[in-house]
Amino acid sequence: MLTVVLLLLASKANSQSGTLPVFYINTENAQAIKSKTEYVPATYYIVSDDSSLVVGSEASPLNLEIRGRGHSSWRGNKKPYKIKLAEKHPLLGMKSQKHWALLKFYEPTVAGLELGNILGMDWTATTKPVEVVLNGDYIGLYLLTETNRISNNRLNIYEQANGNEDEETIPYGWLVEVDNYKESNQITVKENSTWNIRITYHSPDSLSSAQKEWLTNEFQDINAAIYDVDKEHSTWEQYIDVESMARYFIVQEVMDNTDGFHGSFYLHKDSTEDARWVAGPLWDMSCSQRAKTDYTFRMKTSYVFTPHWIGELIQDEDFCNAVRQAWADFYSYDVDAWMDYIDEHLYPCFDAYEHEKKRWGYDNQSDLKSRISNLKNALLANIEWFNDHLPYGTTTSVSDLELADSRVVKVEYINMAGLRNSKPWSGMNIKETTFADGTTKTTKVIIK
Predict the structure, then answer these.
(1) Alpha carbon 373 to its chain's center
(2) 141 and 182 belong to one structural domain
(3) 20 to 30 A Cα–Cα from 107, which one of 101, 216, 333, 428?
(4) What is the pTM of this model?
């Protein structure tokens, strides 16, 4: 009898390696997951050699809902999924939440998200490797990942209500995404004479006419300010946090992520004094692993894409100063610690990756050790290339830069009556930029 039970369990587990936690999901009536919008009821439990990571059991599973997610990734044989637990839970040691994603295992995702942490972005999702068995079928190695959303244990900012009509609070509490794809929860603004920008609103995700009008006008104003031909007197800094945009740019360059600035490009805005749009959280990281010959947004790819804004921002002195300062902080960091992090989080996946290859017929792919080595070599090469090609740089390495703390911490506009405001007045203004080292710069700005 015991032998029969063990054989049944082995059959149900299919061919997972057993070297990682295993996430078992069983949908109601074993129905297939075919939709990216409609959730399917299901139960789950997690098995692990580490008792602290065990959740539920086969005899006592917990409830969740599951649906598909992604765009091009959804068209593959191996599918990514969005899951919503019935009750919050700290899965695999991550912070307690209901909302999670099961992403295809991809080494640059792990490396890129950690780079966001190193660079001090507001919040960056955590991932944990896990093997997944869906309705008794082993479907491979995944990254169980925190999703980008506003909450206490994720992006911890103010969140305004859906359908808000209050003009005083509408400008605050947003999470949006500059998106490649057309979505229903989206506005479109004209970037230039050639193409548009799609802005998908994730929170709030159901807008009143007042919210939609404000969001459209806001991004039209941001776009106009970024495209101002007079870069010395442009006003985009009143809308966007310069330092966060500089750090986001560095991530895209070090990762050589060709999706940067045109897809999965998130921005958020809190409710604080002088609140501005902040770049991030990061999502959908990749690494081209090619020899860099230019900034990523200028290099050719195998598909057509439009990088929004960065071609204009890189002409702005304040932005480039912020990039230099953020780079100086990063370049002085022990990059070996980042490489060690990559090893520590990916080496335990060796056996599971071999089972993944067998499950999905990836027999022509390299072993994971080679893939990790290739990724690390590409990242280190990208770091040195960028260090030699800092924007607005007259020198070739960070050691030659003047390392004054030139981060922009405040921008104010002063009208002819001496009144100050975070946004410019109509007519002539004095734009006063304050840097973290206490120095200031003033320029004249005329708003017609």
Answers:
(1) 24
(2) no
(3) 333
(4) 0.87
